[in-house]
């Protein structure tokens, strides 16, 4: 008994380390230490669980060591290998694994109870017989499987869309709303029946049916959502996985899981809301799907719709920027695709050497996850103090000589503020059009994710710089250095 | 009663989470996301407890898979977050 309470005390310390860790994550200088503190909390929690798993229960060390070794090896390898541009996919995949782990925990408990026979007695001793085995246990098992499986399959589809392995366009199945509702109701019914009233093999099949329905639900509800909305989906699923961890905490009566899960749930929800606000769309609108895509939507802008577009080659662009005394770079998803962050940084440094004031403007939804651009520019060693959020820099475009837009489109579309009829009306944009000259580096005149025309392309102060972002900027830099 | 107590913990933790996380600047949102994701790997505790019963056959296999997956989530998550944050650190001049 005494052993047990010391373990609880150590869990409390782990909880405190998580909270402290997230607190330190709010400043760039202390963020790394914060992450380390949270990792320390996790290590403590694992060690305590291994040493003192609870009243009179022995661990199967073969299973534990095998699981930890496989997971640790794979996890470390993934973390070392991944490119910074692949970070959104990585987070989605890890999130999916977390969800699947919850499902397996719940399935294993359930299987043990029904196939092993004496699970109920073993289980009830674990948290002093408070919650396990009763209605709360059944509810938590069913919800863990439901949320965990939806998180897993949903995250996999999101990852596929982020990496381009699945079409980024909304995939609209006929009758999908009915299908999605049917799957959810079916999953809940199977879960309720299997968890509460059925016994033996019937219950097992019910729970497996629940798992299958939840998996299909995850796939079918993410498929109709367009590729650029994936950040919202991933952070919402992240929030789900936090809630799932909290529920697992209720099952095993462990406040550490409840607190950690709640922190993650809150973080995912906050990021989701921030992104929706930055697009001036509701969460419901994002989740219903069908918005945008890689291909032009009906009535969207093709090249033929533009008149009076001026273009500039690397040489001309270099001449324009050479005399600028203030420059703002606006990176977008295109910079990530072209891996152009390093040459952007070199160009920025060259301009600074020539006495120009160089800054970077980051739109909240630029890229494929919140803060995506910041990470890429940090990778290229750009000082984070040169990066400015929308509210902090939007007033300065008027007094800026040259704006260089690298692979961004919708986030600088003036239609959002000038045309109330536009699909993106009301979305906060970076006011690049107010600058003296706009250099728009882009492969073509094709529309962005919203699938609409961007009148910025044909403005008097805009030069379209057609080409691959990295190649164009390298050529520009070479011209500049020669001059 | 204990259930109610845990509900208290849950609700208070959500409020605390809201306060803490709304202070994180947009620059750090990607590391926040992957760090939070690593923390959600706390289900590893539940997964480890799965292996504490004398599980055989399917339940045992599920238990090992649960531990392995949760460990990938935790180890991969914290390491990749550290890799990102290390890049933010380099401030010259």
Give the DSSP E fraction of chain B (strand runs of 2 or more residues). Answer: under 5%
Q: What is the count of distinct domains of chain A?
A: 2
**How many beta-strand segments of chain B?**
0
Would you list the SSEs of chain A in sequence order as H and E? HHHHHHHHHHHHEHHEHEHEHEEH
Largest sheet features of chain B: none
For the CA atoms, what is the radius of gyration of chain B? Answer: 18 Å
Rg of chain A (CA only): 26 Å
The helix count of chain B comes to 4
The gross shape of chain B turns out to be flat
* Class by SSE composition of chain B: mainly alpha
Question: What distance separates the N and C termini of chain B?
Answer: 59 Å
Strand order of the largest sheet of chain A: 3-2-1-4-5-6
Give the oligomer, counting copies of the same chain as homo and different chains as hetero.
heterodimer
Largest sheet geometry of chain A: 6 strands, parallel
Q: Pairing-aware structural class of the strands and helices of chain A? A: alpha/beta
Strand content of chain A: 5-15%
Give the low-pLDDT segments of chain B: none
The mean pLDDT of chain A is: 85
């Amino acid at each position: 008994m005494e052993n047990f309470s010391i373990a609880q005390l150590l869990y409390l310390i782990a909880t405190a380390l998580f909270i402290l860790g997230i607190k330190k994550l709010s400043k760039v200088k202390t963020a790394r230490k914060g992450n380390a503190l949270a990792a320390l909390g996790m290590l403590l929690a694992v060690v305590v669980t291994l040493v003192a798993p609870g009243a009179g229960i022995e661990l199967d060390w073969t299973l534990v060591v095998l699981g930890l070794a496989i997971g640790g090896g794979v996890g470390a390898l993934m973390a070392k290998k991944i490119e910074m541009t692949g970070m959104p996919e990585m987070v989605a995949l890890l999130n999916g694994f977390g969800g699947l782990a919850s499902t397996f925990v719940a399935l294993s408990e359930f299987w043990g109870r029904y196939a092993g026979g004496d699970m109920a007695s073993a289980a009830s001793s674990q948290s002093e017989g408070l919650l396990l085995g009763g209605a709360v246990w059944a509810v938590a098992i069913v919800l863990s499987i439901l949320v965990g499986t939806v998180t897993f399959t949903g995250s996999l589809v999101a990852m596929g869309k982020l990496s381009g392995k699945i079409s980024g366009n909304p995939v609209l199945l006929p009758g999908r709303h009915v299908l999605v509702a049917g799957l959810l109701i079916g999953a809940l019914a199977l879960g309720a029946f299997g968890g509460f009233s059925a016994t033996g093999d019937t219950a097992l099949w019910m729970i497996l049916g629940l798992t299958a329905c939840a998996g299909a639900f995850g796939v079918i509800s993410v498929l109709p959502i367009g590729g650029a909305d994936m950040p919202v989906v991933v952070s919402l699923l992240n929030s789900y996985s936090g809630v799932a961890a909290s529920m697992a905490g209720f099952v095993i009566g462990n406040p550490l899981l409840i607190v950690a899960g709640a922190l993650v749930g809150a973080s995912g929800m906050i990021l989701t809301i921030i992104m929706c606000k930055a697009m001036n769309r509701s969460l419901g609108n994002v989740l219903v799907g069908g918005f945008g895509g890689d291909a032009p939507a009906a009535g969207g802008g093709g090249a033929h719709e533009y008149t009076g577009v001026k273009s500039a080659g690397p040489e001309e662009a270099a001449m324009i920027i050479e005399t600028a005394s203030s420059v703002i770079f606006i990176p977008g998803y295109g910079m990530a695709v072209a891996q152009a962050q390093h040459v952007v940084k070199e160009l920025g440094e060259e301009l600074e050497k020539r006495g120009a004031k160089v800054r970077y403007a980051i739109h909240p939804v630029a890229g494929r996850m919140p803060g995506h651009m910041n990470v890429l520019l940090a990778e290229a060693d750009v000082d984070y103090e040169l990066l400015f959020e929308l509210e902090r820099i939007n007033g300065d475009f008027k007094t800026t000589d040259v704006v260089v837009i690298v692979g961004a489109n919708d986030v600088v579309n003036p239609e959002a503020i000038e045309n109330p009829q536009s699909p993106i009306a009301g979305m906060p944009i970076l006011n690049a059009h107010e600058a003296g000259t706009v250099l728009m580096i882009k492969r073509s005149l094709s529309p962005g994710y919203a699938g609409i025309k961007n009148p910025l392309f044909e403005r008097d102060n805009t030069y379209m710089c057609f080409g691959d972002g990295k190649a164009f900027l390298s050529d520009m830099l070479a011209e500049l250095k020669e001059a | 009663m204990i259930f109610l107590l845990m509900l208290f913990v849950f609700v208070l933790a959500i409020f605390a989470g809201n306060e803490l996380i709304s202070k994180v600047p947009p620059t750090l949102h990607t590391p926040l996301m992957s760090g939070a994701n690593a923390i959600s790997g706390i289900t590893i505790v539940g997964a480890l407890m799965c292996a504490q019963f004398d599980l055989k056959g399917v339940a045992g296999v599920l238990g090992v898979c649960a531990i392995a997956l949760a460990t990938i989530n935790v180890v991969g998550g914290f390491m990749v977050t550290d890799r990102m944050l290390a890049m933010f650190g380099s401030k010259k001049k």
